[in-house]
Amino acid sequence: MQSGAAQTTAEGKTLLKIQDLSFRYPGESADELGILALEGIEVDVREGEFVSIVGPSGCGKSTLLSVVGGLVSGFEGSVSIRGEEVRKPHPDIGVVFQEDSTFPWRNALRNVEFGLELRGVPKEERRRRAQEILRLFGLEGFEQRFPGHLSGGMKQRVAIARTLVLEPEILLMDEPFGALDEQTRIILGEELLRIQQELRQTVLFITHNIQESIMLSDRVVILSARPGRIKAVMDVDFPRPRDSTLISSTHFAELVGKIWAVLRDESLKAFGQDSQKKEANNA
Amino acid sequence: MKRRKAPPLYLARLLLVLTLLILLELAIRIGLINRFFVVLPSELIPQVLRDLVDREFLTLVGITFYETAAAFLFASVVGVGIGYLLWRSRRLGVAYEPLIAGLFASPIILLYPIFLVIFGRTPLAIIAQGAIFGVLPVILFTRQAFAGVSPTLLKVAASMNLSTRDRFRYILLPAAAPTIFTGLRLGLTYILIGVVAMEYIVQIGGLGKLVAETSLRLSTDELYSGITLVVAISVLFIYLTQRVENAVRR
Fold it and tell me: Transmembrane region positions (chain B) (predicted)?
């Protein structure tokens, strides 16, 4: 385990570079300082790597993802992809959100085709590519179904497929399985592993679930309670391809224990921040 | 896994209407309903068919249709526009929504003398009355519709770097459409009531006037023929809005 910045350790070109990133939410008035959400974040993500960010609730995980996705501005430090600064949503970055983000007025196939349609890909080609990726996600036969007739897990697969079909260099995922039940979560995690290995997709994955972060990642970055700073970085050395049977190994349990040891204090701190806030609100 | 094809929906609808007409026919024939007040469906249908080839009658249908269409066009364009503005500018929305809601709940139909004074006894007075009547629910529902669009969908639009135009066309509009079109259908209902009631009261224009005259003459079959065609106009407009809604939600 190394502590401090999450630096590149092995070979492989750095794809995403986050340098000395801090973010403060705007205050209620001009002369009032807002809440400091992130401070001094440094993460390098190499090509084909799967990096998870875990941290206690309210530590700024999702904010970090919004910054990298170019969805918020006004941060300090820099985010770059292949050396190119990210200041607004970048076509090489795809984002998947926690909540259901499928378009209820489009069937599964046309949901996946959406981005291709806007990029002007001809109908036949986009249909073929969408069908291909839906097959990869095990959604063959569900192409014509509308989201209203799909389960939560299936909807999330459609949303991930809709992002992946655009072949982003890096996939940002903000607790994509957070709204799902435990079993669906494990199954989808396994599916994501398989697909990530097949496409050699680079992923930056936000989660509060320790098991999930170990099962999926090459590296786990642990954030502190607010303001989010990098508390520790842990390499996950399970060989690939992996599957969910990892969960029962002793080494897995060891890793969970190690991460929890770091996270425990921070979670307690976050818990304290929360109750303080509630008390202040009640007062 | 092929399911047996269900019979088309319109057959089910037709069946219901026919059943009700037959029940009505029976009720009148056995004297449950007075023949003097309600026309026999078996006499109504030939009457409608006769009227539909009668030039004078068709002119009346045309006038009501034109007044409804004009008022509806105004209510749709202006209502959706204002509703969108009230959503875009939170301050305007918070300031004016209660006023519009209050106005919507008030009996605007009683304002008809004002429109008569401004526009005279012309179709324009009827269109104005109908449009004002119908625009209010359209505004309210449109604002509601845009306010209800899931923030996650807007985040998707942002993450895909959609232009303002594409965001509106491909995300906002289809997401808001069901509620906007509920407002439009409600607006249409109010417009039809406004138009026909005004024709009835001031005795100008189309089918409302015909209904007023024939009821005074106690000419039941003509009266019901007029009412049937008002219903037909309503059905036609509802059908057209449905088509537009489907086109928007593609």
Answer: 63-87, 99-120, 126-149, 170-203, 223-241
Q: Is B217 helix (H, G, I), strand (E, B) or coil?
A: coil
Q: Are residues A56 and A123 in the same domain?
A: no
Tens digits of per-residue pLDDT, B197-208?
889 888 887 888
Q: Is residue A255 part of a domain?
A: no
How is residue A149 written in tokens?
């007739």
pLDDT, tens digit, 9 for 90 and up, residues B153-188: 999 999 998 999 999 999 999 999 999 999 999 999
> Cβ separation of B175 and A99 shorter than 8 Å?
no
Place of tokens 């509703």: B83
Residue A11 pLDDT exceeds 70: no
pLDDT band at A28 (very low <50, low <70, confident <90, very high): confident
Is residue A177 assigned to a domain? yes
d(CA A75, CA A65): 12
Cα of A99 to nearest chain B Cα, Å = 7
Are the CB atoms for B177 and B245 separated by under 8 Å? yes
- Are residues A54 and A144 part of one domain? no
A55 lies in the same domain as A194: yes
Q: What average pLDDT does range B32-38 have in this prediction?
A: 86
**Is residue A275, in this structure, part of any structural domain at all?**
no
- Contact call for residues B44 and B228 (beta carbons, < 8 A): yes
Which 8-state DSSP code applies to residue B2?
A: P
Contacts of B169 (CB under 8 A, 6+ apart): none
The full 3-state SS of A146-211, as one line of letters, equals CHHHCCHHHHHHHHHHHHHCCCCCEEEEECCCCCCCHHHHHHHHHHHHHHHHHHCCEEEEEECCHH
- Give first-to-last CA distance, chain A, whole Å: 43
- Looking at the structure of chain A, the number of domains it has is 2
| Whether A180 and A83 share a structural domain | yes
Is A150 among the domain residues? yes
Q: Are residues A189 and A124 in the same domain?
A: no
Instruction: Say whether both A15 and A73 belong to one domain.
Output: yes
Tell me the chain B residues in contact with residue A70 when contact means C-beta distances shorter than 8 Å. 159
Interchain pair A89, B159: CB under 8 A: yes
Domain B39-248 classification at class level: mainly alpha
- Provide the CB-side half-sphere exposure for B67 (13 A, CA): 32
Q: CA dihedral defined by B157, B159, B165, B169, rounded to 10 degrees?
A: -20
pLDDT, tens only, B126-138: 999 999 989 999 9
Give B58-106 pLDDT, tens digit per residue.
888 899 999 999 999 999 999 999 999 999 998 898 889 899 999 888 8
Do A79 and A110 fall within a single domain? Answer: no
* Interface A-B: count of C-beta contacts within 8 A: 44
Check CB contact under 8 Å for A118 and B171. Answer: no
Question: Domain range spanning residue A161?
Answer: 100-167
